[in-house]
Amino acid sequence: MSIGHTLLGLLEGGPRHGYDLKRAFDERFGHDRPLHYGQVYSTMSRLLKNGLVEVDGIEHGGGPERKRYAITDAGITDVEGWLTQPERPEPYLQSVLYTKVVIALLTGRDAADLLDVQRAEHLRLMRDLTQRKRGGDLSDQLICDHALFHLEADLRWLELTAARLGQLAKAVRS
Amino acid sequence: MTPAGSLLIATSLHKTYGHTPALDGADFSIHPGEVVAVMGPSGSGKSTLLHCLAGIVKPDSGSVHYNGRELTTLSDAERSGLRRGEFGFVFQFGQLVPELSCVENVALPLRLNGTKRKEAEDRASAWMERLEVADVAHKRPGEVSGGQGQRVAVARSLVTGPRVLFADEPTGALDSLNGERVMELLTEAARESRTAVVLVTHEARVAAYSDREVVVRDGKARDMAGVR
């Protein structure tokens, strides 16, 4: 999963401190693997260096200073590019696809379109594998079948998620 | 894909059953020899789209242009003649006539078009060989397996040399191995004879035999070719 893109997506709703970002990420996507603070700050430094976020304000309190980050126009374009570009189909994609769908819903983008584009990408690979199977020997067929069944499982997940988008939109926006 | 050079083009189809809209401005086009998968969730309108394209159902508005003719303005008899002469059909369950032998089933569309029995059965036998079911020619549909029955149905759909084949979940009742063999044989035969295939399916592995897919959702059809 792209932590940078996910954090950028979370920033689209408004500026946040690094700590808030970590908390928002962990709540939505980090059930199994919460982010370390170090990951958040190293990611934010990189995004800052690349002009995708800017420092919106600095709070000086009793402890270390706290930077508040805001997404830049270049950052918004970067999130848009990430959401629009389908993932390379491979097994166990669900976590990144789930993250993309949630970020699309949170930022008011077309999540159904994202799922359609991903489905087309999966089918493109399934066509290639089917073609390879037709011209191949038994071992080719079995290897391609294994990949095809995995891709088919992903596609079923895409269908199911498309059917539940309305429900998911309510849940993530509540 | 652009409609230029298309054999069958539907534009802005609307169809409502009672208060339920089944098609809401759907577009579609297919070229000779092309296999297009029509996908989408249950109730999205994909079967209604197929029925409108095949002239089985008349849309409330919109046009279906086939080979220079506007289907929506033809009479029932003219559309029925077109379906018999130029279109082929395969459904989820073979819908073979149980009283006839398999070869008689395959020959049936030719016999209905006035072809003599001997010639019709010769042509039927050639298609059955092509679909690898020559050995069940003289059995009744009730005596053959599901996979064999479906291949017999595919042979019957192709025997008249249709220019468009409409296949609605053609492998829905088959296991993976039989389903794939049916798809291999169907698409090979269609591509060789330049028959356009409109393939309604909800199975991705079946759709993977197509050249491109169209996704129907909420009565609208989206062509996924070149998406990205």
UniProtKB/TrEMBL annotation, chain A:
<dbReference type="Pfam" id="PF03551">
    <property type="entry name" value="PadR"/>
</dbReference>
<feature type="domain" description="Transcription regulator PadR N-terminal">
    <location>
        <begin position="7"/>
        <end position="76"/>
    </location>
</feature>
<dbReference type="InterPro" id="IPR005149">
    <property type="entry name" value="Tscrpt_reg_PadR_N"/>
</dbReference>
<dbReference type="InterPro" id="IPR036388">
    <property type="entry name" value="WH-like_DNA-bd_sf"/>
</dbReference>
<dbReference type="InterPro" id="IPR036390">
    <property type="entry name" value="WH_DNA-bd_sf"/>
</dbReference>
<dbReference type="GO" id="GO:0003677">
    <property type="term" value="F:DNA binding"/>
</dbReference>
<keyword id="KW-0238">DNA-binding</keyword>
<protein>
    <submittedName>
        <fullName>DNA-binding PadR family transcriptional regulator</fullName>
    </submittedName>
</protein>
UniProtKB/TrEMBL annotation, chain B:
<dbReference type="GO" id="GO:0005524">
    <property type="term" value="F:ATP binding"/>
</dbReference>
<keyword id="KW-0067">ATP-binding</keyword>
<dbReference type="InterPro" id="IPR027417">
    <property type="entry name" value="P-loop_NTPase"/>
</dbReference>
<keyword id="KW-0547">Nucleotide-binding</keyword>
<dbReference type="InterPro" id="IPR017911">
    <property type="entry name" value="MacB-like_ATP-bd"/>
</dbReference>
<dbReference type="GO" id="GO:0016887">
    <property type="term" value="F:ATP hydrolysis activity"/>
</dbReference>
<dbReference type="InterPro" id="IPR003593">
    <property type="entry name" value="AAA+_ATPase"/>
</dbReference>
<dbReference type="GO" id="GO:0022857">
    <property type="term" value="F:transmembrane transporter activity"/>
</dbReference>
<dbReference type="InterPro" id="IPR015854">
    <property type="entry name" value="ABC_transpr_LolD-like"/>
</dbReference>
<dbReference type="Pfam" id="PF00005">
    <property type="entry name" value="ABC_tran"/>
</dbReference>
<feature type="domain" description="ABC transporter">
    <location>
        <begin position="8"/>
        <end position="227"/>
    </location>
</feature>
<dbReference type="GO" id="GO:0005886">
    <property type="term" value="C:plasma membrane"/>
</dbReference>
<keyword id="KW-0813">Transport</keyword>
<dbReference type="InterPro" id="IPR003439">
    <property type="entry name" value="ABC_transporter-like_ATP-bd"/>
</dbReference>
<protein>
    <submittedName>
        <fullName>ABC transport system ATP-binding protein</fullName>
    </submittedName>
</protein>
